[in-house]
Design brief:
The structure is a homodimer.
Chain A: H1 10-25, H2 32-38, H3 53-78, H4 82-99, H5 101-108, H6 128-143, H7 150-172
Helix pairs in contact in A: 1-2, 1-3, 3-4, 3-6, 4-5, 4-6, 4-7
The first copy, chain A, binds a DNA duplex through helix 2.
Chain lengths: 191, 191
DNA sequence: CCTTAAACTTGACAATGTAAAGATTGCATA
DNA sequence: TATGCAATCTTTACATTGTCAAGTTTAAGG
């Protein structure tokens, strides 16, 4: 079909194609066959690299999350104190999804809800952005000489994340007038 | 196919069937044909009541939103002051989705993002729960003799909503340890 | 050179959304 | 009451899609 029988790096090419489709036409337009076509391979070729459509989506999700994490990390590096870092992180968090609403649904939609259908995985706080936030939060406690129980920490972390994540969510939602400047988040909210 | 040619109330029956499918098997299992089968009508019968699958989904969404609003409203009625009402509303908001994670994604997923693809509708703050919150918020301002510009109001509203909506979102997410009691939300967060 | 496993193709099938054409029904109205 | 019409529903058909099975090509190593 193409010049070469072996594509060379079909796996990554499919991920890239998938991202392009999602960006251009939305998540529901993503199909294995379209992605395959964009890579000039047959419709069944993806199955050499992904067990099913689910696995491609998972791979794309990882790819997007990585880019997201890069922005977050470079935001965190900018701040001198932990407090500044956390605020910068919140700003970046909201801005990233405000600029890419499609990614928000893609990352936090469907597959990411607690499916009371199939409880296959253990729930654990291993979401990379959350780990980063926790690291900064602990640094914040240390810098300010604060002592909190694990329980208290957990709750405060969830609170912070709720605000930021909620803002991102709302920034992405239809029906929300954009009179809010998502780049100018009130700092008092964040620590 | 069935006893009677005219079903009687196929429209609502399809909505109910759709909700049942979503609850039992998840959103991605929802298909017009299955819903039709559950109502003992042919696979094309739904097209007499809905333009396409999209329109059925929209109808289901309205149905769920209505139930959600009922819970919110009865929560609001319980509170003596506006402040209490807002807190009760926040609690209900989080609890509702904590109990029905599937609904969260269903209501706020896919179709509800700002699709930079087709900007068909004007963005407006007409989401019923938001309207209720605004009403309570204005009452709160009045009761406490506070004066705010429209801009300030808008921002504060978004903040409150962010926290609550964010908590709901996180409560629904995989990867989040449920050491948090989503029924015991710290009141200091909410006003 | 030959074997083998990975990467890819072709062909098939079932599920789905949807369009078109026709059948059935209830109901208003002449 | 009879008739016509619009709403409701069925049947048929087709394109898209996920997925499987069987076969083909290729690279790479013994």
């Amino acid at each position: 079909m193409a010049d070469v029988y072996h594509h060379g790096n079909l796996r990554q090419a499919l991920i890239d194609a998938g991202i392009k489709i999602i960006n251009d036409y939305g998540e529901e337009s993503l199909s294995l066959r379209k992605a395959a076509a964009m890579c000039n391979v047959s419709h069944a070729a993806p199955y050499a690299h992904f067990k099913d459509k689910e696995e491609l989506i998972e791979a794309i999700k990882n790819d997007v999350t990585e880019r997201f994490m890069q922005e977050l990390e470079s935001a965190v590096e900018g701040g001198a104190s932990a407090d500044e870092a956390i605020i910068a992180m919140g700003r970046t968090y909201v801005t990233f999804f405000s600029k890419n609403p499609v990614y928000f649904v893609f990352l936090f939609g469907k597959q990411n809800i607690k499916a009371h259908l199939k409880m296959d995985k253990e729930y654990k706080n291993d979401y990379p952005p959350f780990l980063l936030l926790r690291r900064m939060y602990l640094k914040h406690l240390e810098e300010n000489g604060l002592e909190k129980t694990f329980e208290e920490q957990e709750i405060e972390l969830i609170k912070i994340w709720s605000i930021v994540h909620g803002m991102a969510s709302i920034a992405c939602m239809k029906g929300v007038k954009s009179s809010i400047d998502w780049n100018d988040i009130d700092e008092r909210l964040l620590v």
